[in-house]
Amino acid sequence: MKKYFAGIAYILAISFTFATTVNVEKVPDFKVKLLSGERISLYELLEEGPVLLDFWATWCGPCKKAMLHQDNFHKAYQDSGFNVLTINQDSPKSLSKVKGYIRSKNYSFKVGVDPNKQISKIFNAVLLPTMILINKDGTIAWRHQGYIPGDEIVVEERIKSLLMQ
To answer: Given strand 39-41, what is the order of strands in its sheet?
Structure first.
């Protein structure tokens, strides 16, 4: 019986070790075209500090609600090296909607376009919005899908925690 419990403890220890090591893998670098026309890589932004990566679309109501807070975060913490990079998932046909929406809101964060969903596949961003907070070292600190009011409190706590490291 003792061997049985020792075996289970061993398996649990290995499982726990595996689960924690998976989370420390670096995210892959990618380049994205911004609405401004320039191209930027994730790792260029990470040289400055942590990045909140957000996948969204113009047809996604919760995405739009979350973006209000993300703009506030970007403005509040950009002097500390923090960046918000949103990745739009609209089709190539609706790119003008994206530009118009961002201009109308006067958002200050960077907006990339991924109409073929190449970047979202890398990050398994199936549900919108998908927010991923990435440490300066390129590891994922936090990941969240969807948005309900109050989520912004958790996001800001995570951002502050990363900036203190």
So the answer is: 39-41, 31-34, 110-113, 83-88, 51-56, 130-134, 140-145
Confirm if 133 and 155 have CB atoms less than 8 A apart.
yes
Q: Quick count: other Cβ atoms within 10 Å of Cβ 75?
A: 13
C-beta separation of 45 from 83 below 8 A: yes
pLDDT score for 1? 53
The DSSP H or E segment spanning 131 is strand 130-134
CATH class in words for 28-164: alpha beta
pLDDT digits (tens, 9 = 90+) for 110-157: 999 999 999 999 999 999 999 999 999 999 999 999 999 999 999 999
Using the predicted structure, report yes or no on whether residue 19 has a pLDDT greater than 50.
no
| CA 149 to the chain's CA centroid | 18
Contact 27/140 with Cβ under 8 angstroms? yes
Indicate the domain borders of the chain: 28-164
